[in-house]
Amino acid sequence: MAHAIKAIREKLDDISKDKDTFHLEVVHSTEEDEALHSRETDSCPPTIVVGREDDKKNIIHLLLLLNSNSEVNNISFVPIVGMGGLGKTTLAQLVFDDDEVTAHFDIKAWVYVSQSFDVKAILGRMLRSIDRQNQAGPELDDLQAQLREKIQGKRFLFVLDDVWEERVVRWEILGKYLTVGAIGSKVLVTTRSSKSRTSTSIVESYHLKGLSEEESWNLLLTKALPRKIPQNPYVEEVGREILRKYGGVPLAVNTIAGMLMSSKNPEIDWPSFLHKGLSEEENPTISALKLSFSHLPSHMKHCFAYCKLYQKGYEFHVKSLVQCWVAQGYIESEIKGLDCFIMLWWRSFFQEVEMDELGNMLTCKMHDLMHDLADSVAGDKIIRSLSSTALINIPSKTRHLAIYEDDDNDAGEEADAAVADELENASKVRTLVCHKPLSKQEFEIVICKFIRLRVLIVFEDRSDASTLLHFVGKLKHLRYLVIHCHGMCKRKTCVALIETKYL
């Protein structure tokens, strides 16, 4: 026993020497945790918007214009143009929810588009946004006929959020389905590209600018120091110098504020932040996001990176996301998982959080730049495949895998075989989210090879879900299971498996 204790002491001495050799700092997280938890008494972070009052008025003015020479076939487009993180979506939401705008238009609909400008998918989302109960068929003729019926002779406002499409012909195809609306109908578009020309029916492109230094400072104070203004002029000087590095980008300012709000001693902590970790070669906004990520506790880094599994624009169900974190062992319990979610929300890693009347968090989204950051930090350990045919050479170190339905619906057995071959080599996977029905061969591989699987979410178009559940029982490490079958979700099994982890 004495020899063992001596060996342990020698090992600790070596670790201590290495700390000095590599100039490592001892970081105590207790103060940060206390500071963050002190803000939980406010229940949920408020939606803070600073410096966009004039922009909102200008956009509303463009939307309410009725007699415009640029209106063609009763409809006109109003693009909000600006770089990522400027708050284009936030501004569009403020306008969309404005009482004057609501009273002016007969119909309003919000559609998230992103990089895939699929006209058929956009029409379907428009219909579902107008009528949640809509059951339009998958064919383009059915979709356009039902949409025309809904908007015929009515003045509508459609918001197309986060559009990347620059080809005029694609816009003209979409526009021809909307011409039956009343005069004054508008389509508000948020885009990063000034080349997104929506044919000749543009009223005017609105180029969104960054916040002024004073607006950025007010936003930082509102979030980082909500109950006090720094008395020390040096702290204000350092704070303003930090903000100058990020060009008035609200997402960057919010992210920085989320990191600085945990500081109990701004006189020491803020100057340290100013001189640490900024890359002059990178986009300043990306630098701010990376620096904020680097300051997260280890478990929060894992939770954030896990979100790479989902596509841009995905609406997360907060409870399900937290349960997946728990199943992976990142967090001990759902209560602590919700704490972690709130911390990440405060730091702007999540946004657009929807709550019920009791204040329970239901859904949320992630900014595209944050999603890009998750892609970057997760690396090959988390793979999101957008089609079966793109699923090639899964690295052996991959631990979490998401497979989406192939755009080519006729890929058939060849695609299934390709997926099966790749799944054969991914035996160390701990998460499988499969948005395409699994073939019998694929499912057998999951059961036989994926012995470390902790989270399994599958979408099945077959009716024998009970047989599927029988085989799932062989996955001894499984902690979270969801099987979607013809719109039905077997969530009782999921909850039971989660609860066994807590026993």
TrEMBL record:
UniProt GO molecular function: ADP binding
Any one GO biological process: defense response
All copies of domain Disease resistance protein winged helix, residue ranges: 309-374
Chain ranges of the NB-ARC domain: 70-227
Sorted UniProt keywords: Plant defense, Repeat
One protein family per Pfam: NB-ARC
Protein name per its UniProtKB record: NB-ARC domain-containing protein
Taxon lineage: Eukaryota, Viridiplantae, Streptophyta, Embryophyta, Tracheophyta
